[in-house]
Amino acid sequence: xxxxxxxxxxxxxxIDLYANDIGVPFVEIKSFAAYVGGCPTNIAxxxxxxxxxxxxxTAVGEDRVGDxxxxxxxxxxxxxxxxxxKPGHRTSAVVLGIEGPDRFPLTFxxxxxxxxxxxxxxxxxxxxxxxxxxxxxxxGLSREPSRSATLYxxxxxxxxxxxxxxxxxxxxDQWDDPRAYAVNVRSALRLVHIALGTEDEINAAxxxxxxxxxxxxxxxxxxxxxxxVEASVAALLGVGPQVLLQKRGKHGARVHLVxxxxxxxxxxxxxxVEVFTxxxxxxxxxxxxxxxxLQGWDWYKAVRLANxxxxxxxxxxxxxxxxxxxxxxxxFVAAQGGW
Length: 339
What we know:
Layout (H helix, E strand, L loop, with lengths): L4 E6 L3 E9 L9 E6 L1 H12 L3 E4 L6 H13 L15 E7 L7 E4 L10 H5 L6 E7 L8 H14 L3 E5 L10 H12 L4 E5 H7 L8 E3 L7 E3 L2 H11 L3 E5 L5 E7 L2 E7 L12 H14 L4 H15 L12 H10 L4
Helix pairs in contact: 1-8, 6-7, 8-9
């Protein structure tokens, strides 16, 4: 039976305030531009711009910021009628500085935020059984009731024959302990077909599991999770996913695919660009990968598209607002010399 939606994403949404003053210390910022953000929100918009039928399960407050988010999504053609308002809770916000080529101080305002209040009943009211792909995120597992709702959604989607994907989305300041992130993500990975993440996120997901993984420089705004990433990859694939897409920044991406003969690894090159800000690039990557997967492409072609989407967004001043259309991707790739 045909599904109504190609993609349903679940989790956080926010208003993103990006500094207009580039290359200055955060304390000297004079103004911000307002965009829409949040990992699953960005992915829903990115996939819609590429041509997929997308719906979003998040939550917003009964506030003007919630109006702002919903207005943008409706204008983009993302289905919003499953997004509940949460009285007494606020729509999330993120503030970003752009201090230099590799310094992007990021502050989350998620105290009492609406999207972490998603419940099992909200899932039951959404088209989890009527989508081809469900995408969940690590941050959705950070608090109740969103944690149980996220796991429930993954169970229902999988039982209905949908592909379940997870963006590992490790945001250290959303967790009291990085080991709690690892334990909760591993519980979700047992329900997941495809996982996406950076080296740090893969290591974080397998913290205390892969053996030689240890957390260093753990701070509210920044975390590096160092260790034997190959051991972490093997441990992650042993939990349940059949595919792991490892995002590698300027080096492109690495596909880890479970086959009857073992894990097959392939590297997919990226596109050289001058980085303006890295925020949102991984979400554009995810949108491209999902699009290619749903077209039935092989993983090399799907991830090459994903790399192009990410490369375009790192040159822009925002996330969802700047994810490319297919025509924009094709023009970009042509200018880069082709696929």
